Amino acid sequence: MTLTGASVRAALLEQRERTKRSSKAEIERFIEESELEVTSIESQIAAFIESRDSHRARVLALKYIASPIYSLPVELLSEIFDLAIEDETHVEDAHRISQVCSDWRRVAHHTPRLWTRTLGVYFCDEKERMADGLKAWLARSAPLPVSILFAGGGPGEGVNPSILEEALRVAHRWRSLQLENEYAILPRWFLHQLSQCRLHSLEELDLGPILGDDDEDDDEQDTDSIPMVFASVPRLRKLRIFQFFFRQTVMPCVQLTDLTIDNVDPNIALDFLAQCPNLLVASVTISGWPQVPGSPLQFPFRQDVLVLNQLSTLVFRMPMETGRTYHITPFFDLLSAPLLQALYYTCISGAIHTGHNGHQPTSPHSSSAHRISLGSNSPAHVGPLRSPLSMPFDMHRHSRT
Q: For the chain, what is the radius of gyration of the CA atoms?
């Protein structure tokens, strides 16, 4: 019972009546006896409360054991967790699931596939705990292959070597690796160490527009002339490569089936394609051969026709540069793809128009191509290709349209 003014007043009247003829010493004895009695009652109350709480905990535990989700097999619970995790928010989703209760955390931590979606690794983070968190995450994904996307900041941000080292520890389990951030600055030692790793599980490699560190000391700058040889990549099938990496990268091109070449000189692109006879899909971004007013048209170094016997899809992208003229006809004149099924022309900054003299763009030498798309948007099916196409692309004319 909570003490109130009325209850205290009633107790006061009662004790006044009780102690009317009592001495001060007797009143002190009454106080001591009452305090002892209060202490005894409080200890009994504490015991009852503890017993009550214990019984409540038992009830909750029994209800949990009797709940339908607790009776689910671990395999089914793992499947539910996997379906509940979205690709775009998989880090937050996996942590949220593992924080519901100890049983769910144990199941989640022992289900490696929950931790194998593409993981963004921000290698410029200076917090040491980030390296520890990465280590724990990668440990939970073992022994399955994992997908890594390296992201970084601008030139002013440093590199956390602990993060790179933790990622390299599991390089043998990388299924895909992306270096996507065009503003990221990776140290050259990492790029060269990367090529020396045994990437036995690697199927996809995206060497995006990431630069090496130009501010390193002279000894490390000397390593820029050493080619990066990717020799231990037996499962590599898909590659994206930028201009920066062509001069210092050696790839097992013969095993590639999907290739993306970005911002590359057309002569280099043809030479690289010649090393990839088993391609099924190719995406090429080149500017073509420039034409300088008053000068003869430049022709490719290569003169023999490049034959890609298995190529079924070719995506050709051409960047625009106002006021300059480029020709792309030689590229297609030197490319033969007898099994080509789809050909896409895409102009990065606008729609592709007809070139000189009303000619149309030329498809590679092919008797089976049946789809073609022209424009600046994503490839789209526009019907069968019934006749050969040819076009010397005039960038100067396009810029005035």
A: 36
pLDDT tens, residue by residue, 120-168: 888 776 666 788 888 999 999 999 999 998 876 555 566 778 888 888 8
Do 166 and 193 touch, CB atoms closer than 8 A?
no
* Half-sphere exposure at residue 178, Cβ-oriented, CA atoms within 13 angstroms: 15
- Provide CB contacts within 8 A for 149, sequence distance 6+: 118, 119, 120, 121, 177, 178, 180
297-304 contacts: CB < 8 A, separation 24 or more?
297/327, 299/330, 300/266, 300/267, 300/270, 300/330, 300/331, 300/334, 301/267, 302/267, 302/270, 302/271, 302/274, 302/334, 303/334, 304/334
Relative to beta strand 238-242, strand 228-229 is: unpaired
**All residues at 6 or more sequence positions from 121 whose CB lies less than 8 Å from its CB, including other chains:** 134, 148, 149, 150, 151, 163, 167
- Give how far the C-alpha of residue 136 lies from the chain's centroid of Cα atoms, to the nearest Å: 17
The residue type of 139 is A
> Which stretch of DSSP H or E encloses residue 242?
strand 238-242
Q: Could you report the per-residue pLDDT of 8-59, keeping only the tens digit for each? A: 888 888 888 888 888 888 888 888 888 898 899 989 999 999 999 999 999 9
Question: Among candidates 244, 177, 256, 241, which has minimal Cα distance to 212?
Answer: 244
Cα angle 113-116-117, degrees, rounded to a multiple of 5: 115
Each residue's pLDDT tens digit, 185-225: 566 667 777 878 889 999 999 887 655 554 444 444 444 55
